[in-house]
Amino acid sequence: MSASPKVAIVTGAGTGIGKAAALALLKDGYQVTLAGRRPAVLEQVASSAGPAASRTLIVPTDVSDPVAVRTLFTRTQATFGRLDVLFNNAGVGAPGVLLEDVSYEQWKAVVDINLTGVFLCTQEAFKLMKAQEPQGGRIINNGSISAHAPRPNSAPYTATKHALTGLTKATALDGRKYNIACGQIDIGNTATDLTARMTQGVPQANGQIAVEPVMDVKHVANAVLYMANLPLDANVLFMTVMATKMPFVGRG
Questions:
Q1: DSSP code of 119?
Q2: Candidates 30, 157, 178, 226; catalytic one
Q3: pTM, whole model, 2 decimals?
Q4: Is the pLDDT of residue 2 over 50?
């Protein structure tokens, strides 16, 4: 990379995909702001980066809180001077209960993080990216296979991930005039703590319980890095990275 490293913000950087992506960006020479709700976990991620930890900034952030999001971007600009890449990765799910039993509070919690949080971060990224020199940057949204097809009893999560696809398209369109590119990575069955249950069996659309294949999270991190490193005159609008044999294509 150049003498002036690129700058990235990764939300949900404390575990799983966010952690892997942040470490891949650091390894590639980026300066990275680690955002998440648990400071101690973010500190562990920074420590695991070795010497690259000197290129990290830790900002505890609840992406559903507009004040916290503004602070995240203000501190990143003050520390690193600009922003080249935003990886909107933070996300939560609701308990896997019947649709009619999902509480308003459970619904709202998922929407606030998965959709409103991405919108708030995107707004702040626009403000920063359009004002900096050189102008522009890249926003990568963590969609999901659920942006295409639901799992049983997943209405809040699935609804937000479908909505995120629309937000990605709107962001890509509205970002053109500022040289801001936006794309979405839809991920299926990455081997993380959150997907450990898949190796024991999870509900299928036909009511059965089945073990599902998973893939190494490093493949997702490499895909995010590929998208991040594209020149701004090229964009991956949508990318699907999934375990080859997971029950998605076809009828299960």
A1: H
A2: 157
A3: 0.94
A4: no
